[in-house]
Amino acid sequence: MARWHTLAAYFRRNYGTRVQKIPLDAGSACPNRDGLLSTQGCVFCNALGSGSGLGARGLSLAEQWRAWRRRYDAADPDCRFLAYLQSFSNTYGSLERLQALLREAAALPGCRGLAVGTRPDCLSPEKLDALALAGRGTGLAEIWLELGLQSAHDATLARINRGHTAACSEKAVTEAAGRGLLVCGHLMAGLPGEGEADFLASVDWAASLPLHGLKLHNVYVPKGTELARQYRAGNYLPLERDEYVDLLCAALPRIPSRLVMHRLQSDPAPGELVAPAWAARKRPLLGYLLRALDARDLWQGCRADAPEERPGWYDG
């Protein structure tokens, strides 16, 4: 039995079948790398960005979409699909570029919705309006805005060279939700200088915002990053697996049951992981977490809005 509100269960309730998010690389940039804010990026950021990296190999969005569709269609012909503009900051740049990108993604064959990854400081009112309007007349069922909040603490955001404040994050979430966008906030556990109390304070802060979903990531050390240099110098130590599971067991009960947990662990790209080794093993971590929650009789929301029993709809 599920003990948190999974994205898979959310999709099954809304679509009646499996839904797969297809990661797309639109060749977007980042103000924290192109010199507008910094050329270094966040301390944990791989220069290749998150996601598939297929755009950097010259594949168009349509070509990427077809490649992923072939893989998933073979496994499940009834699967439905959302386009996930994942790599770097997809709302960075001109309004016209964003509008064209949204039109292109919405027109992909069989696309039922969009998820757009970006930073809180790359959202003007005009760009938020464009995102909110992207579904009109296209048949898209939903539009998610995925925002890297990372931490509620300005001292941490400065320490990791994030380039924006927690107030900026709050403003972006509030204004996006006010336009009807489904906002998924990303938080990171094990950031440099943070302990358990800091992370749980960020979880409580995020739960107070008008979010529809959350992603929780364990910090891992990617090759070629400032964090890798700190790690090799002995100035940063990533969380052990048991430490991260304990953090999740403390965090999930505080998170209201309505929030969809899009992810509970990081997913390093092949060849980029320096440490910790356990971060490369995704399935065992979730199994270990479920057993820990079972043993402690905990579930998402048990110390928030669902104290009596685990919500049955967590199972989809």
UniProtKB/TrEMBL annotation:
The keyword Iron applies. CDD domains: Radical_SAM. Transmembrane segments: none annotated. Residues 20-250 form the Elp3/MiaA/NifB-like radical SAM core domain. Keywords: 4Fe-4S, Iron, Iron-sulfur, Metal-binding, S-adenosyl-L-methionine. InterPro entries: ELP3, Elp3/MiaA/NifB-like_rSAM, Radical_SAM_C, rSAM, rSAM_horseshoe, rSAM_sf, YhcC-like. SUPFAM superfamilies: Radical SAM enzymes. One of its GO terms (molecular function) is 4 iron, 4 sulfur cluster binding. Pfam families: Radical_SAM, Radical_SAM_C. Its cofactor is [4Fe-4S] cluster. PANTHER family: HISTONE ACETYLTRANSFERASE-RELATED, PROTEIN YHCC. This is TIGR01212 family radical SAM protein.
